[in-house]
UniProtKB/TrEMBL annotation, chains A, B:
Family: Belongs to the tRNA pseudouridine synthase TruA family.
Pfam families membership: PseudoU_synth_1 (PF01416)
Designated gene of the protein: truA
Keyword 4Fe-4S: no
Domain Pseudouridine synthase I TruA alpha/beta: 138-241
Protein name, as recorded: tRNA pseudouridine synthase A
Organism: Candidatus Lambdaproteobacteria bacterium RIFOXYD2_FULL_50_16
Length: 273, 273
């Protein structure tokens, strides 16, 4: 199993798809060039187009015999410079990385009257008025279990829209006349684009584009839609009851939680020498 | 006077030169498009090709009448996304930004067995063996006044090679199995490529490519060259007595010191609204 880090800007996301650069395809090509093997990769999160990863995981089988050190150096040599293998560990053949304990995502915002060149590819630039207090006040409502039917892409095929958010922290720091905001979100599983719609909805509230009670309505979209006679009740599509989708380039898959974590529990290996 | 921030990767440095993208030229073009003026820009540091800036300064005269707010928004609108104006202040017509109190540079190193995609354009990746203690031990020798004749580019035209280094700090933090190192350097003035040669020489020592007393010899290059009968005595070129030049993309011009600093001493202005 490999731990991968990538800047997602040049890719159409994790998922292998013909005719579009994708992370999985790039890793499979590197594996094939190096070992001849290119079994499918199992990953716990299919990051979307433009989304970054600090600790994406990818499981694969190898038939060729190659040391971890050779595999590490060889893969990093084959991969483009915006994708790196940062760690490797052997796992049992029946290891199911999709059965993880959850994930941590970090969403980064830069709110100021200028777009910072060093934040350009990692932060969502939000110019103009921004009421951080409104964002801080509304955010805790996300914690716990909710029907997130309003917080998923219209194309999302998920059947169960009930998800649980176990952490939703906002930290910020003043930089010159602007503010960098980091939103840390953890949960076992998320709907397609759920994180970005959660963040986008909060930003709509911070910018006074939505009233303070908008988040409560969005988290209870089914009841609210019935109450106001929305046509969402007929179509079953509640997306319109939440706010905008935050852009992909602000989002990073920070960590995947495994219990036990094979990277932590492995015996000391000296292959990194 | 504008405070500029830029990622230098796409530019041949600050200095305007025909046929090569450069920071000064990009800012002058933006000024001209916006105001019709494009007087030459006075800057305290001509950053080299590939070098970044967090707080470069640029002074210019305007004949057109335009508010600071319009100028700020207009310039940022005209400039490419890797260059930004982060602040503006009016200064007297005779203001001499070249007569500053000194500059702060930060050089960033990432030493690990993998190249981190998020550090790719801002850190010098140094793989393999790295003895940080040797670097920390040697570094304080740079402090104070020295003849830095060995620490300048062969093309450097500077007449006085005596320079004073007032700060040379190294901080580092462990990240996974690697280490991020930040070197902060301050001084009134530096020779061409002096900072990068200072850092490169330390890294040579940390990698055991040079002995521990190498830095002492390089800082006393004239005496050392005479002692060993080096031909540098005849040519007057002592570059060979210091170590390698660290790559440009790890270097950032962090701040220029002005006393008084017009950005600090200005009366409260509301043009940023």
């Amino acid at each position: 199993m490999a731990k991968l880090r990538y800047r997602g800007g040049a890719y159409r996301g994790w998922q292998a798809q013909p005719g579009a650069p994708n992370i999985q395809g790039a890793v499979m090509a590197a594996l094939k060039n190096l070992t001849g093997d290119q079994g499918p990769l199992a990953a716990p999160s299919r990051t979307d187009a433009g989304v970054h990863a600090k600790g994406q995981l990818a499981c694969f089988d190898l038939t060729s015999s190659i040391s971890l050190n050779q595999l590490f150096k060889g893969l990093n040599n084959e991969l483009p410079s915006d994708i790196a293998v940062v760690d490797l560990v052997e796992v049992p053949p029946d290891f199911q990385v999709r059965q993880n304990e959850g994930k941590r995502y970090i969403y980064r915002i830069w709110t100021a009257i200028y777009s910072d060149p060093f934040f350009e590819n990692t932060h969502w630039w939000v110019p103009g008025q921004f009421d951080l207090d409104k964002m801080l006040h509304a955010a805790p409502q996300y914690l716990g279990s909710h029907d997130f039917c309003a917080f998923r892409d219209r194309c999302c095929q998920g059947i169960d829209t009930n998800k649980s958010v176990t952490r939703f922290d906002i930290t910020s720091r003043q930089i010159e006349a602007g503010r960098e905001i980091e939103v840390t979100i953890e949960g076992k599983a998320f709907l397609h684009k759920q994180i970005r719609i959660m963040v986008g909805t909060l930003v709509d509230i911070a910018r006074n584009r939505r009233p303070a009670n908008f988040l409560d309505q969005a988290l209870n979209a089914k009841a609210y839609a019935a109450q106001i006679g929305s046509e969402s009740v007929r179509t079953g599509n509640y997306r319109g009851h939440a706010g905008q989708t935050a852009p992909a380039h602000g989002l990073t898959l920070d960590q995947v939680f495994l219990t036990p974590d094979p990277f932590e529990t492995r015996e000391l290996e000296d292959w990194r020498g």
